[in-house]
Amino acid sequence: MGFFDSDIVQQEAKQLFEDYQSLIQLGGSYGKFDHEGKKIFIEQMEALMERYRIFMKRFELSEDFMAQMTVEQLKTQLGQFGITPQQMFDQMNMTLERMKSELEKQP
């Protein structure tokens, strides 16, 4: 069975995409959130990024051809912006850390 034939993989991919879309849409109102709302949003983004990191690691570790092609496509797409997948995760983590730092400064 191929990597993408797995119901678990398909469901996780679908859920990750839906959760990401919801958080991005919600993030448009981030500036209007109260302190606790901002804290919850950051925590949810951190959890989502961790789920995405684990999901991508499964692709990397899989011997399935399509999984490997997906990893290579991501590397190529990000390479067009001059970054690697690890740099993408690092950048997102730095952004979330900056958001937490700003939040701690607020009363």
Binned strand content: under 5%
The percent range for helix content is over 70%
The count of DSSP E runs of length 2 or more, i.e. the number of strands, is 0
Question: Helical stretch count?
Answer: 4
Largest sheet, in brief, is: none
Approximate shape: elongated
The H/E string reads HHHH
Residue-averaged pLDDT, rounded? 92
This entry's quaternary arrangement is single chain
Poorly predicted regions: none
Distance between the termini: 54 Å
Overall radius of gyration: 16 Å
Organism: Allocoleopsis franciscana PCC 7113
Protein name: DUF1825 domain-containing protein
InterPro entries: DUF1825
Detailed description of the structure:
- Helix 1 (7-27) packs antiparallel against helix 2, helix 2 crosses helix 3 (65-79) and helix 2 packs antiparallel against helix 4 (85-105).
- The N and C termini lie far apart (54 Å).
- This protein has helices at 7-27, 35-61, 65-79, 85-105.
- It is mostly helical and 107 residues long.
- It has one domain (3-105).
- The chain has four helices and no strands.
- It holds the Pfam family DUF1825.
